[in-house]
Amino acid sequence: MVLLQASGIRKSYGQLAVLKGIDLEINRGEIVAIVGASGAGKSTLLHVLGTLDTPDHGKVLIENKDVFAQSSKKLAAFRNHSIGFVFQFHFLLPEFTALQNVMIPAEKLGKYTKSEIEDRAYEKLKWLGMHEFAGKLSSKLSGGQQQRVAIARALINDPTIIMGDEPTGNLDSTNTNIVFDMLKDLSKSKGQTIISVTHDEEFALKSDRVIEMKDGQIIKQ
Hints:
The protein is α/β, with parallel strands linked by helices. It contains 7 helices and 10 strands. The protein has one domain: P-loop containing nucleotide triphosphate hydrolases (Rossmann fold). The protein has helices at residues 42-49, 72-82, 98-109, 114-127, 143-155, 173-189, 201-206; strands at 2-13, 16-27, 31-35, 57-62, 65-66, 83-87, 161-165, 193-197, 209-214, 217-220. Strand 4 and strand 5 (65-66) form a beta hairpin. Helix 3 (98-109) crosses helix 4 and helix 4 packs across helix 5.
């Protein structure tokens, strides 16, 4: 079942054309890796699909909804509810504990009480094997631990799609495998869709589908 459909996506910055007419369909529960050389347009495509950036031309449909046809306020609410992001750099707040960092998107969502948000955050940390560090400052955690906290934060609102921009870029092979296995478990057990930009060949090969980009276009998938 198609979850996300992009058609005719074009994006330029000044005179530089970064995306040159992208057509793409991604199914529910699929793990998709986007690969290509630096400057191929991978991150820009991910940001457009994740509604962090707006295309100059084209449409992005998620669950048959034209996401960019909404007001900016509704789009922000949709993004917070339906899409979780995991970046190469975890972007945790160093003065916050692991638990407090995970709670932030749910607090913005405004759907749950404070105690419910704490319970949900702890549950996500426990699933990722990080509950013992819930009260520890994020700045005191190792790189692999920080990235798992970042994944828990991305999961707090049970998003339909999890988007990763080099989510294992700063991790060693052991932690890379741990993170991938966790993402795979999410896609298989909960039907969540994973879309990730990566330079990690092993990560890409273990994905359900690899989309290769070059010069702002998809050249192979």
